[in-house]
């Protein structure tokens, strides 16, 4: 199973430059778990942090060593201070968030988890010093300004979650530019791959496709910038390794830079899995935040971080299909969510 988390040679070398100990807040989430599993293949001074590791289905199913796990609620400052005091981390990846999914609708919890805890965590880290703080932002920060925006483009959020992520960005920018702290904000596009929530588009599409079926689908022309999770992991490691004063407080898009329509995604899946049926688009209502053109601009990430997505959609889908088969995806933990 390690094949799903191995890093390319360039990223392995960069990981060696990342100063430890390393902590990953939100390690029970989809991207957080992949980041934790990947780093654990090469070094042991990394700790996955979750609100309750005993209830985190991913951490349980992925069989993470208990020595590399800690429970901490970011909204409880006593717990945060105790954790930082114990581990004294130098590199912090913060992927903890609430509200990214349509079922997460508690607005107060969105702002408390995504904004208040960010300020509190960085203030706590300041007391001991740190080498790199990398915050997981979102493509949703651009909101309706969604057609290949640059990091400097206007942010027009169109959801409470997006508003909270914009606030995160300005917090990271403030700490980096004004207080001269080593902070970076990564705006993640539509990541997919092992351990993604079972009710999301690609896991559902591939799971049903393996049984020669297709799920209900939205408008064929809705587009996304689908990026394989392994490339996202590489972006986090790269940004930490390349932290320097000139990029403190900067935002970087983590995307492929390619527009993929739902039709293109489904036809790719149909070909990979030899599905005999024609897809029926428009059989599922578009979500309120669906925009026809939603894809990223990676020029800044390419030039400054020297990072780019390497895994094609076809390769990423094929790898995810193999992973589903290997872990018997249709059973066990897949009706649960965090």
Describe this structure in words.
It is built from 11 helices and 11 strands. With 338 residues, it is an alpha/beta fold. It has a single domain (2-192, 227-256, 294-310), classed as NAD(P)-binding Rossmann-like Domain (Rossmann fold). Helix 6 (160-178) links the parallel strand 5 (132-138) and strand 6. Helix 1 (9-17) packs parallel to helix 8 (229-241), helix 4 packs parallel to helix 5 and helix 7 (201-209) crosses helix 11. The longest helix has 20 residues, at 107-126.
What's the structural domain tally?
1
Largest sheet: 7 strands, parallel
Number of helices: 11
CATH class: Alpha Beta
- Average pLDDT taken over every residue: 91
Termini Cα gap: 23 Å
Please identify, by name, the CATH architecture: 3-Layer(aba) Sandwich
- Write down the overall geometry: globular
* Spatial strand arrangement across the major sheet: 3-2-1-4-5-6-10
How much of the sequence is in beta strands?
5-15%
Task: Write out the CATH superfamily name.
Answer: NAD(P)-binding Rossmann-like Domain
Class by alpha and beta content: alpha/beta
Low-confidence stretches: none
Helical content stands at 25-40%
N-to-C SSE series?
HEHEHEHEHEHEEHEEHEEHHH
Number of E-state strands: 11
Write down the CATH topology: Rossmann fold
Whole-number radius of gyration?
19 Å
């Amino acid at each position: 199973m390690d094949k799903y988390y191995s890093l390319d040679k360039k990223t392995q070398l960069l990981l060696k430059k990342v100063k430890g100990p390393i902590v990953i807040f939100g390690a029970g989430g989809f991207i957080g778990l992949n980041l934790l599993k990947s780093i654990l293949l090469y070094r042991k001074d990394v700790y996955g942090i979750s609100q309750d590791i005993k209830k985190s289905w991913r951490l349980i199913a992925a069989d993470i060593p208990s020595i590399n796990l800690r429970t901490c609620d970011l909204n409880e400052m006593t717990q945060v201070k105790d954790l930082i005091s114990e581990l004294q981390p130098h590199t912090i990846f913060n992927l903890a968030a609430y509200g990214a999914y349509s079922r997460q609708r508690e607005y107060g919890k969105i702002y408390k988890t995504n904004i208040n805890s960010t300020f509190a965590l960085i203030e706590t880290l300041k007391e001991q010093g740190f080498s790199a703080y990398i915050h997981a932002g979102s493509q949703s920060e651009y909101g309706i300004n969604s057609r290949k925006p640059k990091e400097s483009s206007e942010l027009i959020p169109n959801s409470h979650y997006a508003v909270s992520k914009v606030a995160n960005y300005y917090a990271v920018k403030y700490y980096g530019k004004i207080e001269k702290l080593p902070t970076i904000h990564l705006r993640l596009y539509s990541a997919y791959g092992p351990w993604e929530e079972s009710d999301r588009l690609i896991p559902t599409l591939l799971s049903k496709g393996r049984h020669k079926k297709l799920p209900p689908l939205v408008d064929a022309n809705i587009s996304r910038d689908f990026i394989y999770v392994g490339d996202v992991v590489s972006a986090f490691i790269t940004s930490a390794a390349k932290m320097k004063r000139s990029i403190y407080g900067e935002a970087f898009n983590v995307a492929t830079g390619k527009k993929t329509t739902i039709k293109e995604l489904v036809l790719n899946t149909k070909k990979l899995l030899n599905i005999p049926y024609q897809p029926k688009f428009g059989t599922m209502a578009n979500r309120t935040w669906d925009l026809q053109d939603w894809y990223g601009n990676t020029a800044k990430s390419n030039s400054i971080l020297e990072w780019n997505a390497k895994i094609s959609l076809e390769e990423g889908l094929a790898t995810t299909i193999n992973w589903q088969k290997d872990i018997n995806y249709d059973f066990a933990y897949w009706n649960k969510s965090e």
